[in-house]
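From the methods appendix. Each design record in this collection lists the tokenized structure first, followed by the designed amino acid sequence. Records were kept in a plain field format so they could be parsed without special tools. The example shown here is representative of the layout used throughout.

RECORD:
FOLD TOKENS (237 positions):
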């Protein structure tokens, strides 16, 4: 895979692999035919092993293509099932950092909504309770910093995700008038941009879960990357 973007591997043993997914890279093969994380890692594992059998590897959770950060992959069907069970029982902790447009008035907050996914448009929207097909979504946030620039105020937040719905963080913040930096799908500020691609101000920075074999409590952390987070170090206007 010469010339391809490298994926940092944070941790690996016989059961799991934790990596730092580059923003803009799909998790699995899609219509673009661009190299994806799963294929890249399978190729890496194939080169490490003896034999010609395709390695088993599956993602136990997802990150949107524009989102970078920590991901866990299972290397056996048994560990995939064990990790999925932790996720279902809310024992798998996922923390993100995000840059949103606007000044959040509260330092801490909880968002709870009913979200409905539209598979035809690949979008999700907040809908009234009781809407057929809707699923409950919940997150907590903590304000890290705010900065005022020439084009407006930006808030840097830590997000603790309690449910893993499609585009959840992006939709829940945008529905309250705080669209994510660079989000051409949900943030009106960027919907008319002529750029083909913008970096999204969202990064998976902390994962915590029990090792599916040993039971050891594991915590992985990384620093957010991308132009949105670099912008927050700029001197306020």
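DESIGN:
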């Amino acid at each position: 895979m010469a010339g391809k973007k490298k994926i940092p591997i944070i941790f690996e043993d016989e059961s799991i692999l934790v990596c730092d997914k580059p923003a803009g890279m799909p998790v699995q093969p899609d219509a673009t035919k661009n190299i994806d994380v799963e294929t890249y890692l399978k190729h890496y594992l194939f080169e490490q092993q003896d034999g010609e059998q395709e390695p088993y590897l599956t993602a136990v959770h997802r990150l949107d293509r524009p989102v970078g950060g920590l991901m866990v992959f299972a290397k056996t069907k048994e560990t995939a099932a064990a990790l999925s069970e932790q996720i279902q029982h809310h024992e798998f902790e996922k923390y993100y950092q995000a840059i949103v447009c606007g000044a959040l008035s509260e330092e801490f907050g909880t968002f709870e909504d009913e979200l409905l996914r539209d598979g035809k448009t690949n979008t999700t929207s907040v809908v009234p309770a009781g809407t057929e097909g809707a699923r409950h979504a919940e997150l907590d946030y903590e304000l890290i910093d705010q900065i005022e620039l020439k084009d407006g105020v930006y808030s840097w937040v830590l997000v603790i995700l309690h449910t893993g719905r499609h585009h959840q963080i992006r939709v829940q913040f945008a529905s309250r008038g705080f669209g994510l930096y660079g989000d051409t799908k949900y943030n009106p500020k960027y919907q008319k941009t002529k750029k083909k691609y913008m970096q999204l101000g969202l990064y998976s920075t902390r994962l915590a879960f029990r090792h599916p074999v040993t039971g050891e409590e594991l915590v992985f952390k990384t620093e957010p990357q991308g132009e949105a987070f670099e912008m927050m170090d700029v001197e306020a206007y």
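APPENDIX NOTE: The longest strand covers residues 135-149.
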